[in-house]
User: Fold this.
Amino acid sequence: MAAKRLSGKLAVILHADVIGSTALVQQDEQKAHARIQDSFQRFGKTISNYHGQVRELRGDALLAEFERASDAISAALSFQSDQLNYNAQFDDDIRPLVRVGIAMGEVVIADDTITGAGVVLAQRLEQLADPGGLCITPAIREAMPRRLPFELENIGEQALKGFDEPVGVYRVALSAGATVPPPEPGRSRDPAEGSQRFRIMATAVVLAVIAAATYGFVTWQSREPVIPESTQQVPSEKPSIAVLPFDNMSGDPDQEYFADGITEDLTTDLSRISGLFVVARNSSFSYKGRSVDVRKVAEELGVRYVLEGSIRRVNNQIRINAQLIDGSTGGHIWADRFDGTMADVFALQDNVNRKIVAALEVNLTAADEKRFNRVETTNPDAYDLLLRGVEQYNFFNREAIAEARVLFEQAVAIDPNYARAYANIALTHATEVNFQWTRDREASVRLGLEFADKALALDDSIPQIYLTRSILYLSQRQHQAALEAARRTIEVHPNYADGRATMAFIQSYSGHLEPALISIARAKQINPQGTGVYMAVEGRTLFLLGRYEDAARVLEEALERNPGFDRIHLHMAAVNAELGRLDDAAWSVDEALAISPDISLARERSEGIYLRDSDIEHYIEALRKAGIPE
Assistant:
């Protein structure tokens, strides 16, 4: 028999897979079968419409070839947009999420089987993409016309398995308010071409996935989301900025809270502008009180621009000096002075923000414009009390949270319509419940929800309202309600790092472990310096996934930041026990008991808020191995 002739060429390759397909099948085999197959079939039609050709379905993955990069990207984004609507119709969690990688490289084709470096590269890129996301190489970016309405996020060079040199990677998304360009006419394939073959392939693939899920033939650890080591991944096409703590020039150390509060409010307001990427307050404030090189700060935080300045407050007079600096050169873009009174404080902040927006040529949406010229309160004393309360809350310990609530309560006493103050009161109750700092849990839950409702009746755009609800619903084991509230937090403020981290926290307790890692990665992207709490959530999620070495690494760092947090010591004990490091596990147990002497397996089981029995049993058995008393 003659050898089959191989066809070698340079091609644009698209690789896609359904994340967590095994878990979907295990929830409901028939539904998962139907929805995964339907997703593959619709993606196949979209690929054909954009002049591509589906070459193979491997496991739960699809492989396609295109002649042009723009067609491949358009097909991927068109499908992902359609898939969001497709999944939105379902009330359950069986929602196929697809991630896509597109690369250009040499391939070899034989009887519709395609192999080569281009295929492997596309597969590696797909593993870096978010659920519903797309990653491409610099070669694809260069081949893509700039006129297309796509936003690119440079996540830097990544070390990819099978490649000697790091590879540059971009995430791609559709620009806000834009639509995917339609297929170019005159080049489309016959829609019926290969459709029967594709349906057969899709059915076979889904059946193979079901078999793997049923009999455990496949180890899915390699399919976990790839969380990059560096979280400093800023959208390259979006101006990125960090607001450093403004210096207190009032000549009164007691006015430090005011300078910090204005800085935090500027950061928050900027972060809600859709055309900007703003690093979270926690990361920027890590430079407080330090003499810094702005270029180094920009590099460490992964931003292009840095805002710095000072605030002078004398009685009711306020002066803000601000300067916007290009972090790549250290050069000043502008510097200006803004004078006013406490009665003008919100207008002053708006003026600073508008100057930044104009300098960076950011196009404001209607929603962005609506956020300007807002007045939280007409009572300057109420705002002053709120800032004092925020200062206390940021100390983040039991006594400080209680003191913060007193100040927020004083704010609403003099302005009963101050929505943000009500929302912050609610958050203090939720925080006490979450960290077990309350002596009356039921009362704290009730009060937290009541004050969240009061805030909502006045203003539905405050993310802390929904954050409070999500935490308190979870404490009552209302997992679905907690997830919905967490989603609403992100809808109201997509760049709210703590909102993303709380979503991860709730997802991890609700059995959505892979999405929890994605959510915490997003939180760390917005807040590169992170917090020990973020790492505790990530470490516990990795533990539940059985990724013990990764969990140990993350929890070690969490302990460095929060050595007095008994929960982290407990999870480190569980991880060490599973790794067979029983001496280390015993040490972690001793540390946890030194902080909370009443820890026991019975208490951990009764207070556990896991949705899935398998997760709580996994945790309890590991603690038993570690030596936690019954």
